[in-house]
Amino acid sequence: MTVSRILIASMAMATSAQAAETDVLFALRDAVAPGFCSAEEPPVSYGLTGGTLHEVPCATTAHDTLSVFIWEAEGHLRPLFFPSARVTGPKGDTPNWSAQEVQSFSAEALASSPVIEGDSITLLHRVPPGLGDGYLVHDYMLQDGQPLVTRVSYAFAIGYDVALWPASARPDRLPPVPFDLDGFAEVEVPTGTHAVPWDVLQDLTMFFPAHPEEEGRPRMTVQMTQYGAQLALEVEEKGWADDSVAGQAYRVLIERVEAGWQVARIGKVNLCSRGEARKSAGKCP
After folding, report:
1. In this structure, what is the dihedral angle of CA atoms 209, 213, 214, 220, given to the nearest 10 degrees?
2. Domain that holds residue 88
C-alpha cells in the first residue's frame, strides 16, 4: 500500500467526539484492533502542533507495550495508521544488514512506545532474537495529524547504523571510504571473513606487544573510518628497539560481504629511524 492510500485509510476511520474521555479512547482503540487489546493502563497524551496525540495502551509483549495512537484536533478523534516497512529478511548467523532492502509499506494500527521530539515520532521494533542487539527504526513527521515516514534504518547497541529508506540514504549510495596506498607496498590479501572488522588485525604480521625483556618503548595506534559497508583501517607500530627501523604501518580496506567483513586491499610501509624519508615501502637506510 502506498503512503497516500495509508493516509486515506486513516482519514476514513475518523470519529467525532466532544472530548477525549478515557472510555471514548478505549472504545476507539478496540474498534481499530478488535479482540486484541487487553491493557487497562490509562492513555498518555502529547501536546503537538495542531492537536493532541493520545497513546492508548493495547497489549504487552516481552520487550514493549503495543498501543493504538489517536489524533485529536478541533473536537475530532482519528486513529493513526503508521506506514511500516516490509524489509527483506536477514540470512545466516552473521546477516549482511546493509544488503537488506525495503520491499513495500503497509498500514499498521499498533505501534511500539514512541520517542517524540517536536512533531517528529520515532518507533523502535526489536531485531529478531539471536540476530543482534538492535532495532528496526521508523522515523515519522506528523503533518496535519498524519504520520509521514521520513527514514527507515537499523540501529544497533554497538553503534552500527544502516540506512534502508529512502534509497538516497542507503550505504551503497555513499561515496567510497577515503583510501589510497600512495607510498605503501601492496601485499597479498588474505582469504576468509570475520564476524567483526577489528578481527582483521589477526591477518597482519604484528610485533606488538614486544617481549618484556626487549628494549624500546613499543606502542600501537589503530584508527578506523566507516562509510556504510566499507572501512578504512590504519595501524601503526612504533618504538622498536632498532637503529634503522622504528616500526611499521598498515593501511587496510575492509568491506562488508554476506558472511561478514573481508579484506579488499592491504598496504604496508616501514617507519624509518634515519634518513630524510621516514617512511619506506622498501628497506630503511
Report:
1. 20
2. 3-170
200-202-206 Cα angle (round to 5): 115
- Per-residue buried b or exposed e for 267-281, using 16+ beta carbons within 10 Å of the residue's own CB: bbbbbbeeeeeeebe
The verdict on pTM exceeding 0.70 is: no
For 133-150, how does the pLDDT look when each residue is reduced to its tens digit (9 = 90+)? Answer: 788 899 999 888 889 999
Identify whether 149 is part of a domain: yes
Total of domains in the chain: 2
Number of Cβ within 10 Å of residue 282's Cβ equals: 7
- Grid cell, residue 17, equals 467526539
- Partnered with residue 134 across adjacent β-strands are 156
C-alpha cell at 104: 513495500
Q: Would residue 177 count as lying in a domain? A: no
Query: 261: domain CATH number?
Result: 3.10.450
Phi-psi region of 259 (alpha: psi -120 to 50; beta: other; left: phi over 0): alpha
- For the four alpha carbons of 165, 167, 168 and 173, in that order, the dihedral sign comes to positive
> Facing residues of 139 across strands?
122, 151
Is residue 174 within 8 A of residue 247, CB to CB? The reply is: no
pLDDT per residue as tens digits for the range 142-188? 888 889 999 998 887 766 678 888 865 555 555 577 888 999 999 99
3-state SS class at 267: strand
Last residue of a domain, one of 170, 201, 222: 170
